């Protein structure tokens, strides 16, 4: 495997965990009222609903200064965030929620199944919180979402679909957004990482083996969703920075790609199946080292 897998080991290398601000980049619009406010590691999306902001996922607590700066650079304020929606119970998606909720008074949302891990954190999540830098916190969600629930605010209605595998209760999200005078279908697949799904890892983390089968079933579950603008839980899932660069270079529709959903999910399924065939030694050899900087071409 010569090229870098977007589903491989993309955790920041040690130097970047020690100096997380190195991962900060400026925010940019994806559609008229949809913005990327994340960093090189974690995706965060901001939706201006006309009646307050929805924030989809936060970075780890160490990414909070960068997130606040990005929200400000777009001309918004943290106190305008009304809803914080978390895709799943992993630190790199909720580590800053408690702090942001304190600052904004926002209502917080997560799937009901993963909400349990917020109330009674399992050992592996406590470990993840420590590995991903200082000040990460669990949060107590205001709303626990069920499969098919909708989140409504202003002109935005987000449909939540449970797609277990990556965690037991990870959710995918679908809604409509306006760009270039048209309405487009936005989709974000929740939970594409599969490196933690080796038998050894699941056992170590006290998670059920069934997640290995659910991972495939979840891809099939959302296969027929219509998605024109695909977002990612992580920026390297949908090459969001590269698309932004293309927009800057004059290709104004770079974020609109109705084929990407199937390309992405098809690739994910294949890579996952290949992964299941690997021995623990092969997994360690192939995914032992972070490829994040290489992916961005950072020396
Ligand atoms: Zn995750």
Supply the CATH superfamily name. Answer: Ribonuclease Z/Hydroxyacylglutathione hydrolase-like
The CATH architecture: 4-Layer Sandwich
Structural class by SSE content: alpha/beta
Helix content: 25-40%
Q: Overview of this structure, please?
A:
The protein has a single domain (14-296), classed as Metallo-beta-lactamase, Chain A (4-Layer Sandwich). With 299 residues, it is α/β, with parallel strands linked by helices. It has helices at 14-18, 64-73, 91-94, 97-104, 112-119, 123-131, 199-205, 211-222, 240-248, 260-276, 280-287, 292-296; strands at residues 28-31, 34-36, 45-48, 53-56, 81-85, 107-111, 143-145, 150-153, 156-162, 171-179, 182-188, 229-231. The radius of gyration is 18 Å and the shape is globular. A hairpin with a 2-residue loop joins strand 1 (28-31) and strand 2 (34-36). The protein has a seven-stranded mixed β-sheet. The model has no long low-confidence stretch (mean pLDDT 96). The chain is built from twelve helices and twelve strands. It binds zinc ion. The site of zinc ion (ZN) has 4 residues, from loops.
Summarize the model shown.
The chain is of the alpha/beta class and 299 residues long. It has helices at 14-18, 64-73, 91-94, 97-104, 112-119, 123-131, 199-205, 211-222, 240-248, 260-276, 280-287, 292-296, and strands spanning 28-31, 34-36, 45-48, 53-56, 81-85, 107-111, 143-145, 150-153, 156-162, 171-179, 182-188, 229-231.
Q: How are the SSEs ordered, and which strands pair?
A:
Blueprint (H helix, E strand, L loop, with lengths): L13 H5 L9 E4 L2 E3 L8 E4 L4 E4 L7 H10 L7 E5 L5 H4 L2 H8 L2 E5 H8 L3 H9 L11 E3 L4 E4 L2 E7 L8 E9 L2 E7 L10 H7 L5 H12 L6 E3 L8 H9 L11 H17 L3 H8 L4 H5 L3
Parallel strand pairs: 4-5, 5-6, 6-7, 11-12
Antiparallel strand pairs: 1-2, 2-3, 3-4, 8-9, 9-10, 10-11
The protein binds zinc ion.
